[in-house]
UniProtKB/TrEMBL annotation:
One Pfam family cited in the UniProt record for this chain: Cupredoxin_1
Alphabetized InterPro entries for the sequence: Cu-binding_ET, Cupredoxin, EfeO_Cupredoxin
PANTHER family, A to Z: AURACYANIN-B, COPPER-RESISTANT CUPROPROTEIN COPI
UniProt protein name: EfeO-type cupredoxin-like domain-containing protein
Cleavable signal peptide: 1-20
GO terms assigned for molecular function: metal ion binding
């Protein structure tokens, strides 16, 4: 019968391997998806910052780094390939829902503090379809 110590070591090793293979473990990392592309949200009517992000067949967001300021931010996701995508910002419990080819959908959040806020495509996070909102 295996010892408790051995079982604990095997469980710990399994947890490390599982998290390493998931492609996204809680923060945007350029090494999982190639070079970053950066876009800056533009302030529009009513002071709402807006930016459009595309999701494509490479399983990438463009841009995948969004620069913004505190306040309201509206991100519009446009899917350009056959594969549907979504854009989810866990910190704000906000999502576009599934966006099919040639369609777009928006998510609006109120950001009250500077920082980095991750977003993902929940369908393709394992393929590295992640991004970050950098708020100053």
């Amino acid at each position: 019968m295996p010892s408790v110590r051995r079982l604990a070591a095997v469980a710990a090793a399994g947890a490390v391997l599982a998290s390493a293979g998931c492609g996204f473990v809680g923060q945007h990392d350029a090494s999982t998806h190639g070079p970053d592309t950066t876009g800056t949200a533009k302030t529009g009517a009513g002071g709402v910052q807006t930016i459009t992000v595309t999701g494509d067949e490479r399983m990438r967001f463009t841009p995948n780094v969004i620069k913004a300021h505190t306040g309201k931010l509206r991100i519009t996701l446009k899917t350009t390939g056959q594969t549907p995508h979504d854009l989810q910002i866990d910190k704000f419990h906000a999502t576009t829902g599934m966006v099919m080819k040639g369609r777009s959908a928006s998510v609006e959040v109120e950001i009250s503090a500077p920082g980095r806020y991750d977003f993902v495509c929940t369908y393709h996070v394992k393929q590295g379809m992640t991004g970050v909102i950098e708020v100053s």
